[in-house]
Design goal:
alpha+beta, 2 domains, membrane, 7% strand, Glutathione S-transferase Yfyf (Class Pi), Chain A, domain 2, 48% helix, 4-stranded mixed β-sheet
Length: 253
Amino acid sequence: MAEETIPGVELFVKASTLDCQSLGADIQCHRIMMMFALKGLPIKTFNVDTIKKTNVQLHFPYKNFPTLTLDNGAEVLDDLDEIERRFEKLSETNQSIPKLACTNKDILSFVNVGPGSKIYQKFNYFIKNRAQEGEEALKTQLLQELKKVNAFLMSAKMPKDGEGNQMFLSGESPGLPDCTLLPKLHYIYVCLGVVKEFPMEELTGIESYLESGRKHSAFQSTCPKKADIVHFYCRQAGMDDAEAMRKSNQVRE
């Protein structure tokens, strides 16, 4: 039996570029869906085919994803920070809904303006680059940024349990900073070496963080399949459909 969703609330996210129906690869959509999962709020979700428009009308009103509608469409939110703020306020009045916000300044700086923010930008530059003369420089920049992320995740600024083991950015369980960082790192690690060749090194801080995140039900239930992730970024890299399909078929869940 399907879980009953919150009346009057709908979330529109990108559908897969592979089959135009499944959940698509989008770090922002993943971020918001993971937040709702962590709060235990079942939201009615629509996977919107933004490529072929097979499941939406020609004049579909929403252009940004994710888009959240409240009160049966009377209110529309497509600013991620505003969506998070709105539902964090809900936690203040309903103690059964966990708070996910982080107040640690080092963590917030790392995620919002530091390497945790810059890493996806470096990844995008590398994936989308089609000029051979700039490829090695972009590889180097991305690897350097990955090392910075790894260094922070292994640093004393990261929360640790009683035995000194690394936890999530927000502590024992994921919070809003993890909703932002986990999808980025997961997509990067799924794609590097498949979409494009990359000299991946052993980065134990990132690998340990990803291992913990991938085991969490809130991440698993909101994560697209690896094949969908690879197919999306193959398109970002300018590959034709045949090559994108071939590479997406290489990955295993």
